[in-house]
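Exam revision sheet. Question 4 asks you to relate a sequence to its structure. Input first:
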Amino acid sequence: MTEKSTPRLSARIERWPVAGAFTIARGAKTHVDVVIAEIAADGHVGRGEATAIYYHGESAESVAAQVMAAADAIEAGADRAAIQMLMPRGAARNAVDAALWDLEARRTGRPAWAIARLAPPAPLLTAYTISLGEPARMEADARAAADRHPLLKLKLAGVGDLDRVAAVRRGAPAARLIVDANEAWTGRDVAAEAAALLPYGVELIEQPVKAGEDALLDGIRSPIPLCADESCQDRADLARCIDRYQAVNIKLDKAGGLTEALALTAEARAAGLEIMVGCMLSTSLGIAPAFLAAQGARWVDLDGPLLLAKDRAPGFVFTGGTMHPPAQGYWG
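Answer key, structure tokens:
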């Protein structure tokens, strides 16, 4: 019998250029710094990728440092369950959790979906993001994307949103539309704003009010489903979302990994909430575990690699807005 080696954890930061600029209400980005966690053991290396949640004050450097703070625990044999208790939710735990899933898959020769007792994953239709801009620019971007992406996600900012949505609808008359208010409707009449979007076929509104001010939605009867994003990080946030939102956007960097994301999905569904699975800017390595979490979700927004100037190889293949896992690797 071959003696098992001590697991060794390492972390590094990689910079990936964005295709043009990615613009939301909080600003524009021309690159994304991702953190790679690697756990080496028994001749195998498991890898996970995470992107700092900037609105939580995280940076790539702080995430990498938090990853390395778990090194002693990993060397002592901490598994995924132990890491859930040891590390707080967030990008660092996501990176370590993904590396542990990947390492187990490589050690056992079984894909991660089988280890998680999931059905074999199927290709998924993902939204494609139209960055925040002037209506004419968003219309042009929507027109350019419409042939390849039947589901578009618009970034909004509050003032002028109706003009933006109308412009995108002109540019992509047949596309399905979801919108992300990015907390910009705080202080606005959410029900009236939603009603104004009905003629344009908008089917979901993400995070209309600021996280922590969700009580502003008490009694609101929006004609379009509302989805909690910043307001729902993990299962601890579900109670305040029920009866205020009709869906939750699960992101592994928020939840702290696939392990928590699967548990959050089960509890959200049991509470009657619809599921959306999203991502931060990331490469295919970052969305690989999210692809498993997104199986069966009503809305999928895993276009992170499409928004980069280039992706890592092997990467997901996107055809007609549908994402297919790479032929190599243990995630697919």
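Marking note for examiners. The two ends are 30 Å apart (CA to CA).
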